Amino acid sequence: MWSCRLNKIKSSRTKKSIANSTALAEVPSAQSSAELMGHKEFSYFFGLIGNWRYLLELFVGGNVLALVLSLAEAQSWQALNLTHLLQYALYINWVLLCFAAFVQLFHQRFDRMGIKAALIAGFLLLQAIVLVTTVTLNVLIHFGINFHLRSLTTEIAFDRVGMHLSFGILLGTFCFRYLYLREQWSRQHHSELNSRIQAMQARIQPHFLFNSLNSAISLISIDPDKAEHMLLNLSRLFRASFQELKLVSLQEEIDLCRRYLEIEQIRLGERLQVEWKLENKDLYSQVQIPLLTLQPLLENSIFHGVEKILTKSTISILIEILQNQISIIITNPYSQDDAVLKRGNGIAIENVQQRLKAYYGPSVIFRTYAGKGIYTTVVQYHYK
Length: 384
What we know:
By secondary structure, the chain is of the alpha+beta class.
């Protein structure tokens, strides 16, 4: 049964529920705003220059500059010299490629700088690459023509250096201004995301806390050992919720969820049954996941599913790791009359989704399905 569900979900053509139901909600993918959360300082460009997407931004801007320079030289489209255009493009792309390589090589030093210091250092590095490239080309061209360097002079070696440095200043001014604005946007988005996650945690905790404390109080006179165990689990769970947002191992997150479910099973009794299906468990200590990612989803499954149904209910959790991809499937019963109430899940689901994407980018797949009394949440992402 589990294999059948997982195979259907993995299919790119899956548009319906695992139980042949219609999709209730499908959250679209979006670009991530930061490689990692929890960093006090992070740089949109200098920390992620190795990503092809950011290199593409550089080369597109460089080729546009090459076209503009060629048009300025030709003064019309009809007089445009394709040879000169190719020379400009090759020169600018070489400079940008060297710049990207040096930034990637010294990225740790750039990461320790503030954003303004990193941009200034990057600007100076770009001009240094332009200077060295121009002088080297002049020397190589002179040697290719004369097959010796005896007649090489400073004037020949530094020919057109001033013009090329002006091109470098133009390219650097536009690119680094753009990168600075993107950095500010990225930090603002990171701050808003952090605030939303904290608001989500504050929202989901009160009703769970009050219900758990009431259950523990009622157990003190009947079964004090069970009450003590329940309070210890509650303490562990809330200690985790007050920690700094960070990555933990998948095994730690599962252990935390087990403690949460033990609390709910004491409170709900036989009404709550939990079925775990864990594949490739030996990798769980190596794979990471944001702290308190699964717990809000399980809490939604209980609050909007099990608590609304008076009969015995089962929550099923499937976790599988295959080819660097983590697949998590959570199913719980729900009442068809409760479909409108399920929309309240959107806040928690959207926050968990954005939190995962802040770490793992557009590889995150987050979908929910409802049909035939079963509500299913599917989470998939490629771990690093």
